Amino acid sequence: MEFYAEIKIRGDAYGRGFSNGLSLTGSATTNGLTVLEEREDCTVYTDPRGYRLEAFHQKRGDVVDCKCVFYNHSQEPVTLEMLSSFALRGLEGENLYRIQSFWSAEGRVLRQNLLDLNLEVSWAKFGFRSEKFGQVGSMPVRKWFPFVALEDPKTGTFTGAQLYCASSWQMELFRNGDPLQLCGGLADRDFGHWCKTVQPGESFETPRAVVAQGDSLEQLCHRLVQAQTPRIAPVDRDMPIIFNEYCTTWGNPTLENLTKTAKKLEGTGVRYLVIDAGWYKIPTADWGTTIGDWNPSRELFPNGIREATDMIRSYGMIPGLWFEMEVTAKDAQAYHQTEHLLKRDGVPLTVGPRRFWDMEDPWVQDYLSRKVIGLLRENDFGYVKIDYNDAIGVGCDGAESPGEGLRRKICASQDFFRKMARELPELVIENCSSGGHRLEPSMMELVSQASFSDAHECTSIPVIAANLHRVIRPEQSQIWAVLPKDGDIHRIHYLLAATFLGRMCLSGEIYDMPEEQWQDVLSAMELYRKVCGIIRDGYTRFVECTAHSYNHLEGWQGVLREKGDEALLVVHTFAGGAHPPVEKWTEGYRVAERYGDALDGDFQAAVFRLEKI
Protein backbone atom coordinates (compact mmCIF):
# COMPACT_ATOMS: atom_id res chain seq x y z
CA MET A 1 0.00 0.00 0.00
CA GLU A 2 1.38 3.38 -1.05
CA PHE A 3 0.11 6.85 -0.17
CA TYR A 4 -0.04 9.41 -2.97
CA ALA A 5 -2.36 12.22 -4.20
CA GLU A 6 -5.02 12.66 -6.89
CA ILE A 7 -5.60 16.12 -8.35
CA LYS A 8 -7.31 17.64 -11.39
CA ILE A 9 -6.71 21.24 -12.55
CA ARG A 10 -9.08 22.93 -14.96
CA GLY A 11 -7.73 22.83 -18.49
CA ASP A 12 -5.60 19.73 -18.01
CA ALA A 13 -6.45 16.51 -19.80
CA TYR A 14 -8.81 14.02 -18.22
CA GLY A 15 -7.73 10.45 -17.55
CA ARG A 16 -7.66 7.62 -20.07
CA GLY A 17 -9.57 4.37 -20.27
CA PHE A 18 -12.99 5.93 -20.97
CA SER A 19 -13.06 7.50 -17.52
CA ASN A 20 -14.21 11.02 -18.43
CA GLY A 21 -17.60 11.54 -16.80
CA LEU A 22 -16.97 8.69 -14.36
CA SER A 23 -13.92 9.97 -12.56
CA LEU A 24 -11.44 12.83 -12.33
CA THR A 25 -8.66 10.50 -11.18
CA GLY A 26 -5.71 9.68 -13.42
CA SER A 27 -5.66 13.18 -14.92
CA ALA A 28 -2.74 14.85 -16.67
CA THR A 29 -2.35 16.96 -13.51
CA THR A 30 -1.71 13.89 -11.35
CA ASN A 31 0.50 12.25 -13.95
CA GLY A 32 2.51 15.45 -14.44
CA LEU A 33 3.55 15.77 -10.79
CA THR A 34 7.19 15.28 -9.85
CA VAL A 35 8.24 14.06 -6.42
CA LEU A 36 10.41 16.78 -4.88
CA GLU A 37 10.79 15.32 -1.42
CA GLU A 38 9.78 12.08 0.26
CA ARG A 39 9.45 12.57 4.02
CA GLU A 40 8.25 10.07 6.58
CA ASP A 41 4.98 11.96 7.06
CA CYS A 42 4.62 13.79 3.74
CA THR A 43 5.28 13.50 0.04
CA VAL A 44 5.99 16.83 -1.65
CA TYR A 45 5.19 17.17 -5.35
CA THR A 46 5.89 19.98 -7.81
CA ASP A 47 4.47 20.93 -11.17
CA PRO A 48 6.57 22.83 -13.77
CA ARG A 49 3.94 25.59 -13.86
CA GLY A 50 4.79 26.65 -10.30
CA TYR A 51 2.43 24.51 -8.23
CA ARG A 52 3.37 22.61 -5.09
CA LEU A 53 1.37 19.82 -3.50
CA GLU A 54 2.04 18.37 -0.06
CA ALA A 55 0.34 15.04 0.62
CA PHE A 56 0.50 14.32 4.34
CA HIS A 57 0.34 10.76 5.70
CA GLN A 58 1.36 11.07 9.33
CA LYS A 59 1.39 7.96 11.51
CA ARG A 60 -0.52 8.37 14.80
CA GLY A 61 -0.79 5.22 16.86
CA ASP A 62 -2.79 2.67 14.86
CA VAL A 63 -3.92 5.13 12.18
CA VAL A 64 -2.50 7.46 9.55
CA ASP A 65 -3.72 11.08 9.39
CA CYS A 66 -4.00 12.33 5.82
CA LYS A 67 -4.63 15.62 4.06
CA CYS A 68 -3.36 17.50 1.03
CA VAL A 69 -2.28 21.14 0.79
CA PHE A 70 -2.02 22.81 -2.62
CA TYR A 71 0.14 25.93 -3.09
CA ASN A 72 -0.04 28.23 -6.09
CA HIS A 73 3.44 29.70 -6.56
CA SER A 74 2.70 30.75 -10.14
CA GLN A 75 1.69 34.19 -11.38
CA GLU A 76 -1.81 33.16 -12.48
CA PRO A 77 -4.95 31.92 -10.70
CA VAL A 78 -5.49 28.18 -10.93
CA THR A 79 -8.78 26.31 -10.50
CA LEU A 80 -8.91 22.93 -8.81
CA GLU A 81 -11.63 20.55 -9.95
CA MET A 82 -10.62 17.71 -7.65
CA LEU A 83 -8.13 17.26 -4.82
CA SER A 84 -8.04 14.13 -2.68
CA SER A 85 -7.69 14.11 1.09
CA PHE A 86 -6.09 10.69 0.81
CA ALA A 87 -5.16 8.33 -2.01
CA LEU A 88 -3.83 4.77 -1.86
CA ARG A 89 -2.46 2.52 -4.57
CA GLY A 90 -1.05 -0.97 -4.66
CA LEU A 91 -4.15 -2.42 -2.97
CA GLU A 92 -5.45 -5.96 -3.25
CA GLY A 93 -8.90 -7.01 -2.18
CA GLU A 94 -12.12 -8.83 -2.98
CA ASN A 95 -14.85 -7.21 -0.86
CA LEU A 96 -15.95 -3.61 -0.45
CA TYR A 97 -17.63 -2.47 2.79
CA ARG A 98 -19.76 0.64 3.10
CA ILE A 99 -22.09 1.87 5.83
CA GLN A 100 -25.51 3.07 4.75
CA SER A 101 -27.76 5.66 6.32
CA PHE A 102 -31.21 7.11 5.87
CA TRP A 103 -33.50 8.80 8.38
CA SER A 104 -34.13 6.39 11.28
CA ALA A 105 -32.20 3.68 9.40
CA GLU A 106 -28.59 4.52 10.18
CA GLY A 107 -25.58 2.24 10.26
CA ARG A 108 -26.43 -0.72 8.01
CA VAL A 109 -23.28 -2.45 6.72
CA LEU A 110 -23.22 -3.23 3.00
CA ARG A 111 -20.69 -5.87 1.90
CA GLN A 112 -20.21 -6.41 -1.84
CA ASN A 113 -17.82 -8.56 -3.79
CA LEU A 114 -15.85 -6.63 -6.39
CA LEU A 115 -17.05 -9.06 -9.05
CA ASP A 116 -20.64 -8.11 -8.24
CA LEU A 117 -19.63 -4.46 -8.71
CA ASN A 118 -18.09 -5.34 -12.09
CA LEU A 119 -14.68 -4.14 -10.93
CA GLU A 120 -12.85 -7.14 -12.36
CA VAL A 121 -9.88 -6.06 -14.43
CA SER A 122 -10.31 -6.32 -18.20
CA TRP A 123 -8.60 -8.93 -20.37
CA ALA A 124 -6.18 -6.28 -21.65
CA LYS A 125 -5.75 -4.63 -18.23
CA PHE A 126 -7.19 -1.49 -19.77
CA GLY A 127 -10.53 0.26 -19.48
CA PHE A 128 -11.38 2.24 -16.37
CA ARG A 129 -13.38 0.57 -13.57
CA SER A 130 -14.81 2.66 -10.74
CA GLU A 131 -17.19 2.50 -7.78
CA LYS A 132 -17.70 6.10 -6.68
CA PHE A 133 -20.09 7.11 -3.93
CA GLY A 134 -20.68 9.90 -1.45
CA GLN A 135 -23.13 12.53 -0.32
CA VAL A 136 -24.10 15.91 -1.73
CA GLY A 137 -25.33 18.63 0.63
CA SER A 138 -25.21 19.66 4.27
CA MET A 139 -26.35 16.34 5.76
CA PRO A 140 -23.09 14.37 5.47
CA VAL A 141 -24.63 11.08 6.63
CA ARG A 142 -27.80 11.17 4.55
CA LYS A 143 -27.19 8.03 2.44
CA TRP A 144 -23.70 6.85 3.31
CA PHE A 145 -21.34 7.38 6.19
CA PRO A 146 -18.01 8.86 4.98
CA PHE A 147 -16.40 5.46 5.50
CA VAL A 148 -14.96 2.78 3.25
CA ALA A 149 -13.19 -0.53 3.79
CA LEU A 150 -11.58 -3.07 1.47
CA GLU A 151 -11.09 -6.69 2.54
CA ASP A 152 -8.34 -8.92 1.21
CA PRO A 153 -9.36 -12.47 2.25
CA LYS A 154 -6.02 -13.87 1.10
CA THR A 155 -4.17 -11.98 3.84
CA GLY A 156 -7.09 -11.40 6.23
CA THR A 157 -6.41 -7.65 6.07
CA PHE A 158 -8.97 -4.86 6.09
CA THR A 159 -7.90 -1.41 4.83
CA GLY A 160 -10.26 1.49 5.43
CA ALA A 161 -10.72 5.23 5.85
CA GLN A 162 -12.99 7.83 7.40
CA LEU A 163 -13.39 11.35 6.03
CA TYR A 164 -13.76 14.34 8.35
CA CYS A 165 -16.09 16.38 6.15
CA ALA A 166 -19.51 17.85 6.99
CA SER A 167 -20.26 19.08 3.45
CA SER A 168 -20.32 17.16 0.14
CA TRP A 169 -17.80 14.31 0.00
CA GLN A 170 -16.88 11.28 -2.08
CA MET A 171 -15.02 7.98 -1.94
CA GLU A 172 -13.78 6.09 -4.98
CA LEU A 173 -12.39 2.57 -5.50
CA PHE A 174 -11.00 2.27 -9.00
CA ARG A 175 -8.59 0.55 -11.32
CA ASN A 176 -7.32 0.82 -14.88
CA GLY A 177 -5.51 -2.48 -14.50
CA ASP A 178 -3.94 -4.22 -11.53
CA PRO A 179 -3.86 -3.48 -8.62
CA LEU A 180 -6.66 -1.39 -7.02
CA GLN A 181 -6.59 2.27 -5.99
CA LEU A 182 -8.69 4.09 -3.38
CA CYS A 183 -9.14 7.79 -2.73
CA GLY A 184 -11.54 10.18 -1.05
CA GLY A 185 -12.14 13.80 -0.17
CA LEU A 186 -14.38 16.69 -1.10
CA ALA A 187 -16.99 15.87 -3.73
CA ASP A 188 -15.39 16.97 -7.00
CA ARG A 189 -16.69 19.00 -9.93
CA ASP A 190 -18.43 16.00 -11.49
CA PHE A 191 -19.99 14.69 -8.28
CA GLY A 192 -20.54 17.73 -6.06
CA HIS A 193 -20.37 20.76 -8.37
CA TRP A 194 -17.15 21.80 -6.61
CA CYS A 195 -14.19 23.72 -7.90
CA LYS A 196 -11.84 26.06 -6.09
CA THR A 197 -9.80 28.94 -7.55
CA VAL A 198 -6.48 29.44 -5.79
CA GLN A 199 -4.93 32.85 -6.35
CA PRO A 200 -1.16 33.42 -6.78
CA GLY A 201 0.54 33.09 -3.40
CA GLU A 202 -2.47 31.33 -1.83
CA SER A 203 -3.02 27.74 -0.76
CA PHE A 204 -5.90 25.35 -0.21
CA GLU A 205 -6.10 22.56 2.39
CA THR A 206 -8.41 19.56 2.09
CA PRO A 207 -10.51 18.11 4.88
CA ARG A 208 -8.72 15.51 6.97
CA ALA A 209 -8.98 11.75 6.46
CA VAL A 210 -7.87 8.88 8.68
CA VAL A 211 -6.63 5.58 7.22
CA ALA A 212 -6.13 2.34 9.13
CA GLN A 213 -5.75 -1.40 8.73
CA GLY A 214 -6.98 -4.28 10.86
CA ASP A 215 -7.33 -8.04 11.02
CA SER A 216 -11.12 -7.79 11.11
CA LEU A 217 -13.80 -5.25 10.28
CA GLU A 218 -14.33 -4.73 14.03
CA GLN A 219 -10.64 -4.01 14.65
CA LEU A 220 -10.41 -1.64 11.68
CA CYS A 221 -13.51 0.26 12.78
CA HIS A 222 -12.32 0.42 16.39
CA ARG A 223 -9.04 1.99 15.28
CA LEU A 224 -10.79 4.55 13.10
CA VAL A 225 -13.29 5.45 15.81
CA GLN A 226 -10.65 5.68 18.53
CA ALA A 227 -8.74 8.15 16.36
CA GLN A 228 -11.57 10.67 16.81
CA THR A 229 -10.75 13.24 19.50
CA PRO A 230 -14.05 14.79 20.64
CA ARG A 231 -14.47 17.87 22.78
CA ILE A 232 -16.17 16.37 25.83
CA ALA A 233 -17.33 19.03 28.31
CA PRO A 234 -15.82 18.51 31.79
CA VAL A 235 -19.20 17.84 33.43
CA ASP A 236 -19.98 15.17 30.82
CA ARG A 237 -16.86 13.02 31.05
CA ASP A 238 -18.33 10.49 33.50
CA MET A 239 -21.20 9.73 31.06
CA PRO A 240 -24.15 10.95 33.15
CA ILE A 241 -27.73 10.06 32.21
CA ILE A 242 -29.92 12.50 30.26
CA PHE A 243 -33.67 13.11 30.30
CA ASN A 244 -35.08 14.85 27.21
CA GLU A 245 -38.74 15.84 27.47
CA TYR A 246 -39.57 15.80 23.74
CA CYS A 247 -41.33 12.42 23.82
CA THR A 248 -43.13 13.62 26.94
CA THR A 249 -44.66 16.87 25.63
CA TRP A 250 -44.16 16.49 21.85
CA GLY A 251 -43.22 20.11 21.23
CA ASN A 252 -45.33 21.64 23.98
CA PRO A 253 -43.04 22.05 27.03
CA THR A 254 -44.59 23.90 29.94
CA LEU A 255 -43.36 24.86 33.37
CA GLU A 256 -46.01 22.59 34.90
CA ASN A 257 -44.95 19.54 32.90
CA LEU A 258 -41.24 20.16 33.44
CA THR A 259 -41.83 20.49 37.18
CA LYS A 260 -43.65 17.14 37.31
CA THR A 261 -40.75 15.52 35.46
CA ALA A 262 -38.09 17.17 37.64
CA LYS A 263 -39.82 15.99 40.83
CA LYS A 264 -39.85 12.41 39.53
CA LEU A 265 -36.16 12.58 38.62
CA GLU A 266 -34.95 14.19 41.83
CA GLY A 267 -32.33 12.06 43.54
CA THR A 268 -32.04 9.53 40.69
CA GLY A 269 -28.66 10.75 39.49
CA VAL A 270 -30.01 11.98 36.14
CA ARG A 271 -27.83 15.01 35.42
CA TYR A 272 -29.55 16.83 32.53
CA LEU A 273 -33.18 17.76 31.94
CA VAL A 274 -33.39 19.03 28.36
CA ILE A 275 -36.20 21.25 27.08
CA ASP A 276 -36.66 20.26 23.46
CA ALA A 277 -38.51 21.90 20.55
CA GLY A 278 -41.44 24.26 20.97
CA TRP A 279 -40.26 26.52 23.81
CA TYR A 280 -40.30 29.53 21.44
CA LYS A 281 -43.51 28.83 19.50
CA ILE A 282 -46.32 31.31 18.94
CA PRO A 283 -50.04 30.50 19.47
CA THR A 284 -50.91 30.69 15.75
CA ALA A 285 -48.31 28.27 14.36
CA ASP A 286 -46.57 24.93 14.83
CA TRP A 287 -43.19 24.68 16.56
CA GLY A 288 -41.56 23.56 13.32
CA THR A 289 -42.55 26.70 11.40
CA THR A 290 -41.59 29.32 14.02
CA ILE A 291 -37.88 28.52 14.15
CA GLY A 292 -35.50 31.46 13.88
CA ASP A 293 -36.68 34.27 16.18
CA TRP A 294 -35.81 32.38 19.38
CA ASN A 295 -38.01 34.30 21.79
CA PRO A 296 -39.17 32.13 24.72
CA SER A 297 -42.94 31.65 24.60
CA ARG A 298 -44.86 33.78 27.08
CA GLU A 299 -47.72 31.31 26.79
CA LEU A 300 -45.55 28.37 27.90
CA PHE A 301 -43.32 30.36 30.27
CA PRO A 302 -45.32 33.39 31.47
CA ASN A 303 -42.60 34.49 33.87
CA GLY A 304 -39.76 33.84 31.44
CA ILE A 305 -37.76 30.70 30.75
CA ARG A 306 -35.31 31.48 33.60
CA GLU A 307 -38.04 30.33 35.98
CA ALA A 308 -37.84 26.87 34.36
CA THR A 309 -34.03 26.67 34.54
CA ASP A 310 -34.03 27.78 38.17
CA MET A 311 -36.61 25.11 38.93
CA ILE A 312 -34.58 22.39 37.18
CA ARG A 313 -31.43 23.36 39.07
CA SER A 314 -33.37 23.35 42.35
CA TYR A 315 -33.97 19.63 41.77
CA GLY A 316 -30.25 19.03 41.29
CA MET A 317 -30.11 18.86 37.47
CA ILE A 318 -28.52 20.88 34.67
CA PRO A 319 -31.08 22.45 32.30
CA GLY A 320 -30.71 22.02 28.56
CA LEU A 321 -32.30 23.71 25.56
CA TRP A 322 -32.99 22.77 21.92
CA PHE A 323 -32.06 24.97 18.95
CA GLU A 324 -32.09 24.61 15.19
CA MET A 325 -29.87 27.64 14.87
CA GLU A 326 -28.67 27.48 11.25
CA VAL A 327 -32.14 27.80 9.74
CA THR A 328 -35.31 29.83 9.99
CA ALA A 329 -38.88 28.85 9.11
CA LYS A 330 -41.84 30.46 7.38
CA ASP A 331 -43.76 31.79 10.42
CA ALA A 332 -40.74 33.50 11.96
CA GLN A 333 -39.85 37.12 11.29
CA ALA A 334 -36.28 36.01 10.55
CA TYR A 335 -37.55 34.11 7.50
CA HIS A 336 -37.93 37.42 5.70
CA GLN A 337 -34.37 38.67 6.43
CA THR A 338 -33.43 37.57 2.92
CA GLU A 339 -30.29 39.72 2.72
CA HIS A 340 -28.77 37.40 5.36
CA LEU A 341 -30.06 34.08 3.99
CA LEU A 342 -28.46 31.67 1.53
CA LYS A 343 -29.40 32.05 -2.11
CA ARG A 344 -29.10 29.90 -5.17
CA ASP A 345 -29.44 31.47 -8.59
CA GLY A 346 -30.11 34.77 -6.83
CA VAL A 347 -33.22 33.69 -4.92
CA PRO A 348 -33.53 32.54 -1.29
CA LEU A 349 -32.79 28.83 -0.98
CA THR A 350 -36.07 27.42 0.36
CA VAL A 351 -36.66 23.80 1.35
CA GLY A 352 -40.19 23.08 2.58
CA PRO A 353 -40.85 25.68 5.31
CA ARG A 354 -37.13 26.38 5.94
CA ARG A 355 -34.47 28.77 4.73
CA PHE A 356 -30.82 28.84 5.75
CA TRP A 357 -28.76 31.55 7.40
CA ASP A 358 -25.55 32.60 5.67
CA MET A 359 -23.22 31.52 8.44
CA GLU A 360 -20.34 33.52 6.92
CA ASP A 361 -22.31 36.76 7.30
CA PRO A 362 -21.02 38.81 10.30
CA TRP A 363 -24.59 40.01 10.93
CA VAL A 364 -25.75 36.39 11.28
CA GLN A 365 -22.87 35.51 13.57
CA ASP A 366 -23.76 38.48 15.79
CA TYR A 367 -27.48 37.62 15.70
CA LEU A 368 -26.90 34.01 16.72
CA SER A 369 -24.36 35.05 19.36
CA ARG A 370 -27.14 37.04 21.02
CA LYS A 371 -30.03 34.67 20.37
CA VAL A 372 -28.22 31.40 21.14
CA ILE A 373 -25.12 32.00 23.25
CA GLY A 374 -26.64 35.01 25.01
CA LEU A 375 -29.89 33.21 25.81
CA LEU A 376 -28.02 30.17 27.15
CA ARG A 377 -25.78 32.33 29.33
CA GLU A 378 -28.48 34.67 30.64
CA ASN A 379 -30.81 31.82 31.59
CA ASP A 380 -28.20 29.54 33.18
CA PHE A 381 -28.42 26.65 30.71
CA GLY A 382 -25.58 24.12 30.82
CA TYR A 383 -26.58 21.93 27.89
CA VAL A 384 -27.58 22.68 24.32
CA LYS A 385 -29.00 20.38 21.64
CA ILE A 386 -28.27 21.66 18.12
CA ASP A 387 -30.66 20.10 15.62
CA TYR A 388 -30.65 20.43 11.82
CA ASN A 389 -33.69 19.21 9.90
CA ASP A 390 -33.15 19.81 6.20
CA ALA A 391 -30.37 20.01 3.63
CA ILE A 392 -28.85 22.84 1.58
CA GLY A 393 -28.35 20.47 -1.35
CA VAL A 394 -25.69 20.92 -4.01
CA GLY A 395 -24.65 24.38 -2.81
CA CYS A 396 -25.33 28.10 -2.90
CA ASP A 397 -24.27 31.42 -4.40
CA GLY A 398 -21.30 33.39 -3.14
CA ALA A 399 -18.29 31.39 -4.32
CA GLU A 400 -16.70 30.19 -7.55
CA SER A 401 -18.89 27.06 -7.50
CA PRO A 402 -21.99 25.88 -5.63
CA GLY A 403 -19.96 23.15 -3.91
CA GLU A 404 -17.34 25.61 -2.67
CA GLY A 405 -20.11 27.89 -1.40
CA LEU A 406 -21.54 24.95 0.55
CA ARG A 407 -18.12 24.00 1.97
CA ARG A 408 -17.48 27.53 3.21
CA LYS A 409 -20.90 27.87 4.85
CA ILE A 410 -20.52 24.54 6.66
CA CYS A 411 -17.04 25.54 7.87
CA ALA A 412 -18.59 28.76 9.23
CA SER A 413 -21.27 26.71 11.04
CA GLN A 414 -18.55 24.61 12.62
CA ASP A 415 -16.76 27.79 13.69
CA PHE A 416 -19.93 28.79 15.55
CA PHE A 417 -19.90 25.47 17.41
CA ARG A 418 -16.33 26.31 18.45
CA LYS A 419 -17.44 29.77 19.53
CA MET A 420 -20.14 28.30 21.78
CA ALA A 421 -17.56 26.04 23.45
CA ARG A 422 -15.08 28.91 23.78
CA GLU A 423 -17.52 31.37 25.33
CA LEU A 424 -19.27 28.76 27.51
CA PRO A 425 -16.48 26.30 28.43
CA GLU A 426 -18.70 24.14 30.66
CA LEU A 427 -21.43 23.83 28.04
CA VAL A 428 -22.41 20.31 26.97
CA ILE A 429 -23.16 20.36 23.23
CA GLU A 430 -25.29 17.69 21.54
CA ASN A 431 -25.10 17.17 17.78
CA CYS A 432 -28.40 16.27 16.11
CA SER A 433 -29.65 16.34 12.54
CA SER A 434 -33.03 14.66 12.22
CA GLY A 435 -31.34 12.12 14.45
CA GLY A 436 -28.17 10.84 12.79
CA HIS A 437 -27.56 12.87 9.61
CA ARG A 438 -24.45 14.58 11.02
CA LEU A 439 -22.70 11.62 12.64
CA GLU A 440 -19.38 12.23 10.88
CA PRO A 441 -16.03 12.79 12.60
CA SER A 442 -15.49 16.52 12.04
CA MET A 443 -18.87 17.26 13.67
CA MET A 444 -18.43 14.64 16.38
CA GLU A 445 -15.13 16.21 17.44
CA LEU A 446 -16.93 19.49 18.23
CA VAL A 447 -19.45 18.02 20.66
CA SER A 448 -19.89 15.90 23.77
CA GLN A 449 -22.54 13.62 22.34
CA ALA A 450 -24.98 13.14 19.48
CA SER A 451 -28.47 11.80 18.82
CA PHE A 452 -27.92 8.31 17.44
CA SER A 453 -31.15 8.29 15.41
CA ASP A 454 -34.76 9.47 15.40
CA ALA A 455 -35.94 5.85 15.76
CA HIS A 456 -37.04 6.71 19.30
CA GLU A 457 -39.96 4.32 19.58
CA CYS A 458 -38.95 1.65 17.05
CA THR A 459 -37.93 -1.94 17.73
CA SER A 460 -34.86 -1.32 15.53
CA ILE A 461 -33.22 0.86 18.21
CA PRO A 462 -30.73 -1.78 19.45
CA VAL A 463 -29.73 -2.78 15.91
CA ILE A 464 -29.03 0.81 14.84
CA ALA A 465 -27.23 1.54 18.11
CA ALA A 466 -24.98 -1.51 17.73
CA ASN A 467 -24.17 -0.76 14.09
CA LEU A 468 -23.08 2.77 15.03
CA HIS A 469 -20.21 1.34 17.12
CA ARG A 470 -18.37 1.06 13.80
CA VAL A 471 -18.41 4.79 13.04
CA ILE A 472 -18.75 6.86 16.25
CA ARG A 473 -17.65 6.48 19.84
CA PRO A 474 -20.33 4.76 21.96
CA GLU A 475 -19.63 7.31 24.70
CA GLN A 476 -21.05 9.96 22.34
CA SER A 477 -23.96 7.93 20.96
CA GLN A 478 -27.09 9.15 22.75
CA ILE A 479 -29.72 6.38 22.66
CA TRP A 480 -33.28 7.16 23.71
CA ALA A 481 -35.56 5.02 25.84
CA VAL A 482 -39.07 6.47 25.59
CA LEU A 483 -40.57 4.86 28.67
CA PRO A 484 -44.20 3.72 28.37
CA LYS A 485 -46.69 4.58 31.07
CA ASP A 486 -48.70 1.39 30.47
CA GLY A 487 -46.33 -0.72 32.59
CA ASP A 488 -45.18 -3.24 29.92
CA ILE A 489 -42.08 -4.55 31.66
CA HIS A 490 -40.68 -6.38 28.62
CA ARG A 491 -40.80 -3.19 26.56
CA ILE A 492 -39.08 -1.30 29.38
CA HIS A 493 -36.29 -3.88 29.46
CA TYR A 494 -36.00 -3.84 25.66
CA LEU A 495 -35.65 -0.06 25.52
CA LEU A 496 -33.38 0.39 28.53
CA ALA A 497 -31.04 -2.43 27.49
CA ALA A 498 -30.46 -0.65 24.17
CA THR A 499 -29.16 2.44 25.99
CA PHE A 500 -26.25 0.34 27.33
CA LEU A 501 -24.92 0.45 23.75
CA GLY A 502 -24.14 4.15 24.20
CA ARG A 503 -25.36 7.13 26.25
CA MET A 504 -28.54 6.55 28.24
CA CYS A 505 -31.22 9.13 27.45
CA LEU A 506 -34.70 8.80 28.94
CA SER A 507 -37.97 10.34 27.80
CA GLY A 508 -41.70 9.69 28.18
CA GLU A 509 -44.39 10.28 30.76
CA ILE A 510 -42.41 8.87 33.66
CA TYR A 511 -44.58 10.54 36.30
CA ASP A 512 -47.46 8.21 35.34
CA MET A 513 -45.43 4.98 35.47
CA PRO A 514 -46.45 2.37 38.05
CA GLU A 515 -44.03 2.34 40.98
CA GLU A 516 -42.87 -1.24 40.37
CA GLN A 517 -41.84 -0.40 36.81
CA TRP A 518 -40.19 2.85 37.95
CA GLN A 519 -38.09 0.87 40.43
CA ASP A 520 -37.02 -1.31 37.51
CA VAL A 521 -35.88 1.81 35.64
CA LEU A 522 -33.87 2.88 38.68
CA SER A 523 -32.19 -0.54 38.77
CA ALA A 524 -31.16 -0.14 35.14
CA MET A 525 -29.71 3.30 35.85
CA GLU A 526 -27.73 1.89 38.78
CA LEU A 527 -26.17 -0.82 36.61
CA TYR A 528 -25.53 1.68 33.82
CA ARG A 529 -23.41 3.82 36.13
CA LYS A 530 -21.32 0.77 37.02
CA VAL A 531 -20.55 -0.18 33.41
CA CYS A 532 -20.22 3.26 31.78
CA GLY A 533 -16.43 2.92 31.90
CA ILE A 534 -16.67 -0.16 29.67
CA ILE A 535 -18.92 1.74 27.27
CA ARG A 536 -16.53 4.69 27.18
CA ASP A 537 -13.14 2.96 27.08
CA GLY A 538 -13.84 -0.56 25.86
CA TYR A 539 -13.50 -2.48 22.60
CA THR A 540 -16.51 -3.93 20.78
CA ARG A 541 -15.40 -7.51 20.28
CA PHE A 542 -18.41 -8.49 18.21
CA VAL A 543 -21.86 -7.50 17.01
CA GLU A 544 -23.76 -10.68 16.11
CA CYS A 545 -27.19 -10.01 14.64
CA THR A 546 -29.42 -12.36 12.67
CA ALA A 547 -31.96 -9.68 11.69
CA HIS A 548 -31.83 -8.17 8.22
CA SER A 549 -34.84 -5.85 8.00
CA TYR A 550 -34.94 -2.87 10.35
CA ASN A 551 -38.75 -2.86 10.23
CA HIS A 552 -39.41 -6.60 10.61
CA LEU A 553 -36.79 -7.89 13.01
CA GLU A 554 -36.29 -11.63 13.35
CA GLY A 555 -33.90 -13.64 15.50
CA TRP A 556 -31.58 -12.02 18.01
CA GLN A 557 -28.60 -9.72 18.56
CA GLY A 558 -25.66 -9.86 20.94
CA VAL A 559 -23.03 -7.15 21.46
CA LEU A 560 -19.93 -7.76 23.59
CA ARG A 561 -17.76 -4.82 24.64
CA GLU A 562 -14.60 -5.56 26.62
CA LYS A 563 -12.31 -3.55 28.86
CA GLY A 564 -9.49 -5.35 30.64
CA ASP A 565 -10.97 -8.07 32.87
CA GLU A 566 -14.50 -6.71 32.51
CA ALA A 567 -17.06 -6.91 29.75
CA LEU A 568 -20.59 -5.80 28.95
CA LEU A 569 -22.94 -8.07 27.02
CA VAL A 570 -26.21 -6.62 25.67
CA VAL A 571 -28.68 -9.12 24.21
CA HIS A 572 -32.00 -8.54 22.42
CA THR A 573 -34.44 -11.04 21.00
CA PHE A 574 -36.71 -10.29 18.06
CA ALA A 575 -39.54 -12.23 16.43
CA GLY A 576 -38.83 -15.94 16.77
CA GLY A 577 -35.54 -15.22 18.51
CA ALA A 578 -35.95 -16.81 21.92
CA HIS A 579 -32.94 -18.41 23.63
CA PRO A 580 -30.00 -16.70 21.89
CA PRO A 581 -26.53 -18.29 22.42
CA VAL A 582 -25.70 -16.45 25.66
CA GLU A 583 -23.53 -19.31 26.97
CA LYS A 584 -21.28 -19.08 23.91
CA TRP A 585 -21.00 -15.31 24.22
CA THR A 586 -20.12 -15.45 27.94
CA GLU A 587 -17.52 -18.21 27.63
CA GLY A 588 -14.52 -17.36 29.79
CA TYR A 589 -16.55 -14.96 31.94
CA ARG A 590 -18.73 -15.16 35.00
CA VAL A 591 -21.92 -13.10 35.26
CA ALA A 592 -21.39 -10.50 37.99
CA GLU A 593 -24.73 -8.70 37.50
CA ARG A 594 -27.71 -9.03 35.23
CA TYR A 595 -30.65 -6.82 34.29
CA GLY A 596 -33.69 -7.67 32.19
CA ASP A 597 -35.60 -10.65 30.88
CA ALA A 598 -35.08 -14.40 30.73
CA LEU A 599 -34.71 -14.17 26.91
CA ASP A 600 -37.33 -16.89 26.45
CA GLY A 601 -39.70 -14.91 24.24
CA ASP A 602 -39.95 -12.36 21.44
CA PHE A 603 -38.71 -8.78 21.91
CA GLN A 604 -37.01 -9.27 25.22
CA ALA A 605 -33.62 -8.01 26.39
CA ALA A 606 -30.98 -8.51 29.05
CA VAL A 607 -27.74 -6.80 30.07
CA PHE A 608 -24.84 -8.72 31.66
CA ARG A 609 -21.90 -7.27 33.54
CA LEU A 610 -19.16 -9.85 33.14
CA GLU A 611 -15.86 -10.56 34.86
CA LYS A 612 -13.13 -12.80 33.45
CA ILE A 613 -12.75 -16.16 35.16
Description:
The protein has 613 residues and is an alpha+beta fold. The protein has 2 domains: 2-226, Distorted Sandwich (Beta-galactosidase, Chain A, domain 5), CATH 2.70.98; 234-451, TIM Barrel (Alpha-Beta Barrel), CATH 3.20.20.70. Helices cover 21% and strands 33% of the residues. The protein is built from 13 helices and 35 strands. Strands 3, 4, 5, 6, 8, 9, 11, 12, 16 and 17 form a 10-stranded antiparallel beta sheet that branches. It has an 8-stranded parallel beta barrel with strand order 18-19-20-26-27-28-29-30. Strands 1, 2, 7, 10, 13, 14 and 15 form a 7-stranded antiparallel beta sheet that branches. Helix 5 runs parallel beside helix 6 and helix 11 packs parallel to helix 12. The longest helix is centred in the C-terminal third of the chain and has 23 residues, at 515-537. The radius of gyration is 25 Å and the shape is globular. The model has no long low-confidence stretch (mean pLDDT 97).
Defining traits:
globular, 13 helices, 35 strands, ten-stranded antiparallel sheet, 613 residues, Beta-galactosidase, Chain A, domain 5, 2 domains
Q: Could you tell me the strand content as a percent range?
A: 25-35%
At the third CATH level, what is the topology name of the largest domain? Beta-galactosidase, Chain A, domain 5
Task: Name the CATH architecture of the largest domain.
Answer: Distorted Sandwich
Q: Count the DSSP helices.
A: 13
> What is the straight-line distance between the termini?
41 Å
Largest sheet: 10 strands, antiparallel
Q: What is the helix fraction of residues, given as a range?
A: 10-25%
CATH class of the largest domain: Mainly Beta
